[in-house]
Amino acid sequence: MLAAAKERAVNDGVRAPESKQRHGDLLESLQELQSETRLLVIGRQGESSGGLSQHVGSQLESVIRIMHRPILVTPANFQKPKSAMLAFDGGATTRKGVEMLAASPLLKGLPIHLVMVGPVNDEASAQLDWAQKVLINAGFTVRAETRSGEIERTLHAYQKEHGIDLLVMGAYGHSRIRQFLVGSTTTSMLRTTTSPLLLLR
């Protein structure tokens, strides 16, 4: 399986990845490799899900909690995204995420939608303007918008309305997004999204 994955990556233009096979507990192995990890890519479902779209892998939430690196959670049928949406709340985690995206080649060339969910006020507008300028200065085409409503539904609705392929958000920040991402709400989001989800730490 590792050899087949490596061959697919090389055929898709990725520099030949290093393969590591490990025995033992997944969480322990990931923690040991964390210092070498720039991005963790993990499937939303394991083999035991039986292909049911509402099921997520049994260890997925635990992995998200212990990793302090960006995590790309992918559905079974991954396609290269053509656009991305960053759920931005002005908190430390998503501000760091904006700077991370600006400095990284990961999403270069993709149009970015910056979406803030909450009341429109001077502070929120200033934070959104800051994020938009950082990404524009890094060469991105950016659309920024503030919407009101319940966070999960509002983000899904915006994503569907604009046909966005990749959702990007902070994980476990000290903000409304943190409240959105902890506990059963994380599981709910993972179950309801049909696109790849990039979680920033």
List the helices and strands and how they pair.
Elements: H1 2-11, H2 26-33, E1 40-43, H3 60-66, E2 71-74, E3 84-87, H4 92-103, E4 112-117, H5 122-137, E5 142-147, H6 151-162, E6 166-170, H7 176-181, H8 184-192, E7 197-200
Parallel strand pairs: 1-2, 3-4, 3-6, 4-5, 6-7
Antiparallel strand pairs: 2-7
Helix pairs in contact: 4-5
Task: Estimate the helix proportion, in percent.
Answer: 25-40%
The class by helix and strand makeup works out as alpha/beta
Extract low-pLDDT stretches: none
Say how many strands there are. 7
Q: Rg, please?
A: 17 Å
CATH superfamily of one domain: HUPs
Across the major sheet, the strand order is 1-2-7-6-3-4-5
Q: Which CATH C-level class of one domain is it?
A: Alpha Beta
In terms of DSSP E residues, the strand content is 15-25%
Based on the coordinates given, report the CATH architecture of one domain.
Answer: 3-Layer(aba) Sandwich
Cα distance, first to last residue? 29 Å
Global morphology: globular
Order of helices and strands: HHEHEEHEHEHEHHE
Mean pLDDT: 80
What is the third-level CATH name, the topology of one domain? Rossmann fold
What is the overall number of helices?
Answer: 8
Largest beta-sheet characterization: 7 strands, mixed
